[in-house]
Amino acid sequence: MTYMLTRIDVGDYDGAGATLADLAAEDPSDWRIAWADGLRRLAAGETDADATAGAAAAGGAFSAVYDELPGELAPKLALAFAAEAAGDAAAAARYFKLVWTVDRSCISAAFGLARACLAIGDRPAAIAALAAVPETSSYHAAAQIAAVRILVSSGMTGDDLHQASGRLGRLALDEARRQQLTVEILRAALGWAEDSGQAPARTAGDGLILGCEPNERSLRFGLERGYRALARLTSDRSRRIELVDMANAVRPKTWS
């Protein structure tokens, strides 16, 4: 079995398939054969023209393992990845949620659940999945950054912008990443103000968005500062010039 898994790792899917067929002939009841076959089909699907069919076949193999080991989380997680690869986001979300609800240390389930929820248009559920990644996890910051970016993506509301600002304020990040996210949030807020003709409504607290009043002028000044901060942090001269130009372009008209 180890030799066969090695074949999968090196991309010898046909050779692995032949080995699996021999093993199945010897002992068709061994669930490890179905497990390995699912891994093979899922891996092969990444390079196969008919990846969806491969993912569906992998799901069938993992279902057989799930029937044999209904209490184990690994088959559920495998079924989630197979469903996602097959384009069945609803099934993927269901399986990812089963795993994430039981095991908060399985961070791949949280990110998988977020992806699946976004695919079916459930942004709040995607954000909630990422927000639940514990602070003790080494992926906590990555999950919160992803949540912030979902909040300021297409379909955002004024409340989403304030939530994104609050989340960033609570995150411990290096200065480069903080400034990059600051720029992304303020750019989204400015776009909101320009497109809607109104500022994001004030919420509880001071109502500011990363220290900026929720109006176009203040947001432009904040975005200018963000671009200049990023320019100071980069060692790439051409990128620095580009960021300074962006800062100058977004700066509101003044008398000075």
Give a brief description:
By secondary structure, the protein is mainly α. It contains 13 helices and no strands. The mean pLDDT is 89.
Give structural attributes.
256 residues; 3 domains; 13 helices; 71% helix
Describe the structure.
This protein has 256 residues and is mostly helical. The protein folds into 3 domains: 1-71, no CATH class; 88-151; 160-256, Serine Threonine Protein Phosphatase 5, Tetratricopeptide repeat (Alpha Horseshoe), CATH 1.25.40. Helices cover 71% and strands 0% of the residues. It has helices at residues 2-9, 13-26, 31-45, 51-68, 73-85, 89-102, 107-119, 123-131, 140-151, 158-169, 175-196, 216-233, 237-250. Helix 3 packs antiparallel against helix 4, helix 10 (158-169) packs antiparallel against helix 11 and helix 11 runs antiparallel to helix 12. The mean pLDDT is 89.
Radius of gyration: 24 Å
Instruction: Enumerate how many helices there are, as a single number.
Output: 13
CATH architecture of the largest domain: Alpha Horseshoe
Query: What's the overall geometry?
Result: elongated
Let me know the CATH homologous superfamily of the largest domain.
Answer: Tetratricopeptide repeat domain
| Percent of residues in beta strands | under 5%
Structural class: mainly alpha
**Low-confidence spans:** none
Distance between the termini: 74 Å
Q: Give the overall average pLDDT.
A: 89
Give the helices and strands, then pairings.
Blueprint: H1 2-9, H2 13-26, H3 31-45, H4 51-68, H5 73-85, H6 89-102, H7 107-119, H8 123-131, H9 140-151, H10 158-169, H11 175-196, H12 216-233, H13 237-250
Helix pairs in contact: 1-2, 2-3, 3-4, 3-5, 4-5, 5-6, 6-7, 7-8, 8-9, 9-10, 10-11, 11-12, 12-13
